[in-house]
Each structure stands twice: as structure tokens, then as C-alpha cells.
Amino acid sequence: MAYIVETQELNPIEQQLKSYYKKYPSRHLNLPCTQDLVQDILDASYTNSKSFAANKIGEHTFIGDDLDAAFVKHMRYTPAFWHQHDFFELLYVVNGKCTNTMFNQTISMKTGDICIIAPGVVHAVSSFSDEDILLNILIRKSTFEQSFLGLLEGDDILSDFFKRTFYQTAEIPYLLFHTGNDPHLHQYIDRAYTEYNRKNRYKKQMLNAILSEFFIALFRKHEQDIEVPNIRLNTAEENLMYILRYMQIHYTTITLKELSAFFNYSERQLQRIILKATGMTFKENIQKQKMIKAADLLLHSSLPISKICEQLGFQSFNNFRKIFFKHYQMTPTAYRNSNMKK
Q1: Do the Cβ atoms of 219 and 212 come closer than 8 Å?
Q2: How far is 1 from 3, CA to CA, in rounded Å?
Q3: How far apart are CA 242 and CA 316, in angstroms?
Q4: 29-39: buried (b, 16+ CB within 10 Å) or exposed (e) per residue?
Q5: Cα separation, 260 vs 241, whole angstroms
Q6: What letter would DSSP give residue 10?
Q7: At what angle do helices 282-300 and 317-328 cross, to 10 degrees?
């Protein structure tokens, strides 16, 4: 990742901030502080810092009108100040370490870690070492939804989890990926950073394409490496993604009892984990998945409704019909006929 790390030496502003940090250790600038304190320090270090230290940062502050994303290297020794923004932030530790504080949670990040922070989450980043190189990838909400959430089409249980993560931030304010310093992810980010710093035609389209590839690689290789706050599992080997993915794959036959036995949880524990992660109970998740598949089969196959009912694991046709009506406000027959007419 030569292009990003080639400027590892402190720039003049970082040198001034480091001097201030060394001169006034009692101010504990590595701990989250208020905007006023930060502004006094930044104003003394460089001009035009108002937008940088603003408590709420808008997309226009960093993301150009002609782009959907921006790449900003974190200024080392900047006081850790509370702030929030209306875009998605992907904090990537290129080298070294940092501390990221959100609400009452403090997470330690190391080389290769990637933290996705949703819009509106109040947080503060602490980086006070010459060795630290942090890259902030700032992405418009619409672009993030297309690049990341768009990958989950068909994985409805996982999709519900991620949507809940990114739009109900009080419950799960961030996702942390421990990538183990994956060189392939390095290459994607290096390509994107290089493209961002050049004046090429179709820069926006190229950046969006690289980011989409990056998210595919991240999710394909490191789905099992996601750390989810506020949801603690029995052992380090177990992962929430495994549970949700298992439900996704086996939704036609799985029961809560079988799932509990497979992952060695009590049914009550597992129900609590699933509800906290997705906002729905185990039963609601499974029923929703079945109804999505039922609607798809009604529209895109000639299977008799009785066969669809059987294929989705329902023992009773009346029960299937009742649940379908609850989801779509019409019977399976009416749903098929109305959409055929359209």
C-alpha cells in the first residue's frame, strides 16, 4: 500500500498539534472532548478549521458535488472531539492503532481493522502516535445503500440486520471488521485512494465501481469476522453472522429448538440475540423469509399453490394462507392473479 503510506512523516500541522499535545499533557487531548476546546487548539494550528471541527458535519464539507465518496487521512494528534455526520464513514486503520469512542463504548482498533459508522452516530477518534495512519472513507448514504446493502439482495434476514444496524443506531452504532490486515482489501483501498487523488475522466464512476468491489470482497471474506456491539455470544469462535446465515439457508425447515441445539444456546438466549439483532423474533424472521419466497414463486413459477406451501415447509395449507394474507393483505390465489393481470 505504498501510495497511502508514502506520506507517513508528520506534516507541518501534525507537528504543531504534536507539540501542543506534548506541552499540555494535563489536558488529556486523547480523550473525547468538547468542540470549544478543540476549536481553540485548531485555530492556533491552521486556518479554515471551522468546518473540520464542527459538531455536525455535512456531506458537502468533504464530498465534492461531482463525487459520491471522499478519502481523508486522519490528522494525527488532533484532539479527540465529539462529532457526527450525515454520511457513512468507513474508518480504516492502514497502520498502527487508534481508539474509537461511541456513546459509552470505546473500541480499540489495530492495523487492518475497518469500522463502518452510520450517519448520526456521535463519536470521537483518538490517534496519538507517529506510526498511526488512519484513512476515513466518507460515502454518501445513497451510494452506500447501493454499494453495500445492495449486495444483500436475497439474503433478507441479513439485510434486515444490517438495515437495523445502520438506521437504528442507538442499538448497534457500528460494525467492526477484523480483517487481519488482508492484502486484497489493501489493494482495493489503495486503488480507490489513488484514483481519488488524480484528475481522471469518469472518476466518480470508477470510485463507485472500486467501492462496490471492495464491499463484495469484505463481505465475502470477512463476514465471520464482524464484531457486533451490544450482542455478546458464548465463545469467541461463535459469530452472529453464522446464526443469521444459518437461519437464512435453512428457513424452510429450521425450528428454534434445532437452532438452539446447533449453536448450544437456550431457546430463550437465542430468541433474545435474534430479536436484538434484527428487531424481530425467530418466528417473525422465518415467516417473513417464507412469505418473500412464496410471493416470488407465485409470480415466477407455475407451481400449484399447494406445492409452494409444501416446499416452504408448511404442514397446513390453511396456516400458510392465513400467514400470507397477514403479510400481503390478500390470498395467495388473489396475489398471483392480480400480478398476472398487471
Answers
A1: no
A2: 6
A3: 30
A4: bbebbebeebb
A5: 15
A6: P
A7: 90
Grid cell listed for 214? 471492495
pLDDT tens readout for residues 108-129: 999 999 999 988 888 999 999 9
Q: Where are the alpha helices (DSSP H) in the chain?
A: 2-5, 12-23, 35-45, 50-53, 59-62, 141-147, 156-167, 183-196, 203-222, 240-249, 256-263, 267-278, 282-300, 305-311, 317-328, 332-341
| 8 Å CB contact between 81 and 53 | yes
Summarize pLDDT for 124-159 with one digit per residue, the tens.
999 999 999 999 999 998 888 877 777 766 667 777
Distance CA 144, CA 138 (A): 9
pLDDT of residue 53: 43
Cell (9 digits) for 281: 423474533
The residue to which cell 460494525 is assigned: 175
What does the pLDDT read at residue 327?
93
Over 50: is that where the pLDDT of 2 sits?
Answer: no
CB of 21 within 8 A of CB of 29? yes
Distance CA 265, CA 306 (A): 35
* Residues 6+ positions from 290 with CB-CB distance below 8 Å: 251, 252, 312, 313, 314, 323
Q: What is the DSSP string of 88-123?
A: EEEEEEEESEEEEEETTEEEEEETTEEEEE-TT--E
- pTM, two decimals, is 0.77
Chain position carrying cell 394474507: 325
Q: Please work out, in degrees rounded to the nearest 5, the angle formed at the alpha carbon of residue 301 by the alpha carbons of 299 and 306.
A: 95
* Range of lowest pLDDT (80-84, 154-158, 198-202): 154-158
